[in-house]
Specification:
The protein has 291 residues and is of the alpha+beta class. 46% of the residues lie in helices and 20% in strands.
Amino acid sequence: MDTIPTYALYGEHEDDPNTEWIHGETIQFRSRLHDYVIAPHRHERLFQVLHLTGGEADFVLDGQRHRLVAPSIVTLPPMVVHGYTFTPDVEGTVLTFFAPRLDAMLAAAAEVAPTFGLVQVIPLVVGSSEAGMVAEHVAAIAGELASRHPGRLGAIEAHLALLLIRLHRLHGEARETAPDAKDRALRHLMRFRQLVDEEFRSHKPVDAYAHRLGLTATHLNRLCREHLGETALGIIHSRLALEARRYLTFTSLSAKEVALALAFEDPAYFTRFFKRRTGLTPTEFRALRNG
């Protein structure tokens, strides 16, 4: 059982089928509901951008504590364990979107996307042109999210791409120093998750993924436990369970048909697998979502 909660948005365990691909809210909106303490957690499939414009925050990243002072911006890829303790005068915006959208959004700027495979914490200078441009893009995205203007999602995607390119340039397009051990570990894990996304239906063992990454299975398991709070096999099973939940939510396939679609040879084993991961049988899960 996971000790680190995995949320959609903080405090929300299940995906909302009606959610658009991007969500935006003020930092105040959610943090004040929790007395300004966002306990360490992670997001399975979501990428987040936090733009701090007022107040301060203690930022916990993989167990290490950092201090954020406005203005600053944080980008968080999926599965990174993070938490915040904000001051009550906090101001700013949090943008959350489906991580697979990132590569498509930056297709014309392919050199930019790898920057966001790792957490970025970028301080901004009060009154600088860089801080102003970042604020303008975030405000434009928030404005479009609050509107129903024609083409709003296209405008949001354009502003978000420009924001990420600006942040990439602020971070520095080329790092002269070699990546440290933590950077290498996170890059291995991002590649592992990509491979699992591509090949989860094949039910490959952990050894096969480790070999592709140039690691031993023991090393891959250690990295997963340290940074993701779960074994490598647990990550593979989580991806299978996610796909099963999608089939049961968005299609009329029977549990047996879902099992076959996910290459489970024994439907009864699929039912047991699904219940271990979710606490419900496929039939119970579908009834709950439909109800």
